[in-house]
Specification:
Length: 174
């Protein structure tokens, strides 16, 4: 099992026991905007997803890891998506689920661990992410880890009856 250990959190591969946590996260309408989700997921579909979570990133072009705290509580998820081996790049997304766990440094530590993993084990040259213009905390997190705003996508997401802008950020390794 892949475990990336930090000081206060660790990242690990998904396990069947994570079904309830992932079901809760994926079906929380308050965060659907972050993942462009529009419909609920059934326990059956999430169970199938977990059964296939062992597949290699080179095959499925994505990697989802669970973020756990020192007490082994599930506090979030961090993803690599659109993995492109040829061009050595991938998208990255992160979610610290509970508001009480946000602004505690867990997201920063998880992001740093995943960046190090992508450079060391996947030999990626660049990472990118998409962040809503009004998500100041995420913008600060990614910019403090070397991501640069490359562009602003105008009226990109339609949420709660209005269009919202989204930044495209990129981090290029040396």
């Amino acid at each position: 099992m892949l475990t990336l250990q930090g000081k206060h959190i660790y990242l690990r591969a998904l396990e069947p026991e994570d079904l309830d946590f992932i079901y809760t996260v994926e079906n929380d309408e308050s965060i659907w905007e972050l993942s462009s989700t529009q419909t609920p997921y059934s326990r059956y579909l999430i169970k199938q997803y977990l059964e296939n979570a062992h597949k290699d990133i080179y095959e499925v072009k994505q990697l989802r890891l669970l973020i756990a705290n020192e007490n082994h509580d599930s506090i979030g998820l961090i993803d690599l998506f659109d993995f492109d081996f040829k061009n050595k790049r991938a998208g990255i997304g992160i979610l610290i689920y509970s508001k009480s766990d946000r602004q505690q440094g867990y997201g920063r530590e998880a992001l740093e661990l995943l960046i190090k993993y992508t450079e060391t084990y996947l030999n990626l040259h660049q990472l990118y992410c998409n962040i809503s213009e009004d998500n100041k905390a995420s913008l600060k997190l990614f910019e403090s880890n070397g991501f640069i705003k490359i562009g602003l996508k105008k009226d990109w997401n339609f949420t709660d009856g209005s269009y919202n802008n989204e930044y495209f950020l990129q981090r290029i390794s040396n």
